[in-house]
Amino acid sequence: MGPVTMTLRRGELAAVMGPSGSGKSTLLSLAGALDQPTEGQVLVGGIDLASLRPAVLADLRRRTVGSVFQDFNLLPGLNARENVSLPLELDRVPLHEARAAAEAALGRVGLGDLAHRFPDDLSGGERQRIAIARAFVGTKSLLLADEPTGALDSVTGERIMRLLRELCDAGLSAIVATHNASHAAWCDRVLYLKDGQLAGSPDSVSAAGGA
Amino acid sequence: MTVRNSLLAILSGQSAHGYALKSTFEDSTAGTWTLNIGQVYTTLDRLERDGLVEGVSSDDPKRRTWQITEAGRKELSGWYEAPVLDDPPARDELAIKVLLAVAADGVDLTDLIQRQREATMEKLQGYTRHKRRADPDEQLPWLLMLDALVLKAEAQLKWLDLCEERLRDRRAR
To answer: Which among A6, A13, A56 has a CA at the least distance from the CA of A183?
Structure first.
């Protein structure tokens, strides 16, 4: 990956587009502190992530960043509520609190009535909604979505983008890597990556403001 | 041809005078096609000449009301049955520009493609903002028109990606 400068504001929904191998997934990993740059800095709220001790970084990552994948990555043996509450339970949040937060998150993605259903009993769109609820449940403020609509039909994919739009309008920040221009168009900004570098005019790829 | 058949389609629902036809046409094309009232009257005159519509008595003698004839319904039914073929294809300025740029010296094709990509994406974002506000029950025609515009813009973006890939392949050989 080459030099890339980007700022994501609170409440912003950004799309990253580009051919396979252009660095979209790498950019998401760097933004979410899942990977470290060989050069340069990743700042969250003005703090350089490289300056943090590994335990602090892991804590920040766990409490701040949620990920959504093309194939949902839900645990088939857990129902919707258990899938969503699991990250909180692993973070030692008391069970009743974790479950209440999971139910609230499922309500926000429109699946409050399906909390007890298992992934295999749900449609692709519903499964992705659960995955999104799991990604922002608790204190998380940054959502990284790698091809979140890749396994869904056009109308369902559009519903997922509409949901992400609503969540970001309510204060979440998100970066979506996608090949689908119609879905990228739901975002505030669209960044084009080519050979690990941002393509295009600076105005189209940068924005002022804190992360 | 589209205006002619569209007026027949509107009149197949109910009789109308010229101005109402203009408004209904513009509403059903989601404001993407503005009709000149003169064009409406010229088209109605031709439709009357061909026996496809006829004037009927109206409460307002200054405004002529039109209704579709049996021959008009037959013509309309033929239009609905015939697939729409873009043949010959409509002229595509962007395609022509890129083709000429490929052959020209001194044009930075990568820049040209990227500028176009950003401009088309901006349009796509505009259509998407309209889609967000559209009520799928109350504004279905508008939503379908937006879907068509979105998919055309998306096709253009895919074509630009393909142009870029082919140019990269050519440079690599």
So the answer is: A13
Phi, psi (deg, nearest 5) at residue A44: -120, 115
What are B63-99's pLDDT values in tens digits? 789 999 999 999 999 999 999 888 788 889 999 999 9
Instruction: Identify the helix (H) or strand (E) that includes residue A49.
Output: none
- CATH code, domain with A62: 3.40.50.300
Residue B86 belongs to a domain: no
Closest Cα of chain A to B137: distance in Å? Answer: 15
> Number of folded domains in chain A?
1
- Tell me phi and psi for residue A68, to 5 degrees: -125, 135
ipTM higher than 0.90?
no
B44 located within any domain: yes
Q: Does any domain span residue A211?
A: no
CB contact under 8 A, B117 and A200: yes
Q: Which residues constitute the domain of residue B119?
A: 93-172
Distance (Å, rounded) from C-alpha B57 to C-alpha B80?
29
What gap in Å lies between CA B147 and CA A101, rounded to an integer?
A: 36
Task: With CB atoms and an 8 Å threshold, state whether A182 touches B114.
Answer: no
Range of the domain at A107: 13-205
